[in-house]
Amino acid sequence: MTTPTRGELADYQAGDLDGFVDSLIATRDSRQPDWDTLGFQAKAGSQYRRAQIRYVGSGATGDHDGDQNILQSRGFTFSNMLLPPGAEGPEHVHHDAEEAFFVLEGQVEVGVHRGEQLVRRTLGYRDMIVIPPGVPRSLRNTGDVDALFCVVIGTQKPQVPTYPESSPMHGITRD
Known about the structure:
mainly beta, Jelly Rolls, globular
């Protein structure tokens, strides 16, 4: 269990309980799909275009600490990913944390990679997969409608993922 910060305790104990509770809520209406944070991946092909919708922390897509719309992370990140039909999340590795995908709409094919081996599973509504740190994974929307799924990364500030030599992103930079 994560201990609240001094500021959080002071806000809670200060008496404005309504304001405190409101500071803990992120509504769907206050979220905007960010098509730019992973925009650099389009250098490898337009099929890698997708949007991150941040709720808690910035995820592993970059530095979004200045985004006042994001709830502060105390031990994990939570976002939604919007994957258009045919779009892909390229093979990548999170070395420092597990990553979970929970499908809300559409279907997502998740690939788990080991060298030349690739095992794929298609997840649909309310299906979930949790991938341990150090295991390469990829995603693809195999349906004909947008896929929307939750992404949870099990650390407060994840390292930016790496792209193995077998990934289409290997060697592509963010700038």
